[in-house]
């Protein structure tokens, strides 16, 4: 006897190591149930709540346009707009359709990171090199102190000047309803 068609996470339908077929000892069970993928796209935020086993809930993101991205070397995080999906190691189709999944490389709007850099180091990373005038003597001392140990990856600097920064998504948009991640620096940019 077979049950209705559906996405199932069972293992009895697979063949044995020897190549033989296993016998179906029972029908499908609720705990073997699977669900269709979220296929989160870039667009105005649209998140649905899904009830899961144990009465808890998951947040299924169908569309997202913003995310919280951290800048590791500067030890900050900023909420910024996701522009497009640039690369995905698992599937090029996910790049073409701008699908947000964990591990996807995305291009971000660099404005929040540029404004942080201007405020923190007194240096505006735009097309032209611009030094901002510090306010008080205390602020001037703070900025000069910060600039002493300042090291900025030239590739990241170039990206910020261009207005787009490459980042990786580290959250799971189809499970948590968020697209958060981190800016790629150094060896991470060789993908």
Explain what you see.
The chain is α+β, with helices and mostly antiparallel strands. It is elongated. It has helices at about 95, 110-120, 135-150, 155-160, 175; strands at about 40, 45-50, 55-65, 65-70, 75-85, 105-110, 125, 130, 165-170, 180-185. The mean pLDDT is about 90. Strands 4-5-6-9-10 form a five-stranded mixed β-barrel. A three-stranded mixed sheet has the order 1-3-2. It contains five helices and ten strands, in the order βββββαβαββααβαβ. The longest helix has 12 residues, at about 135-150.
Order of helices and strands: EEEEEHEHEEHHEHE
Mean pLDDT across all amino acids: 91
Number of DSSP strands? 10
State the distance separating the first and last CA atoms. 49 Å
- The radius of gyration over CA amounts to 23 Å
Spatial order of strands in the largest sheet? 4-5-6-9-10
Strand content: 25-35%
- Indicate the structural class: alpha+beta
Estimate percent helicity.
10-25%
**Largest sheet composition:** 5 strands, mixed, barrel
- Choose one word for the global shape: elongated
Low-pLDDT runs of 5+ residues are none
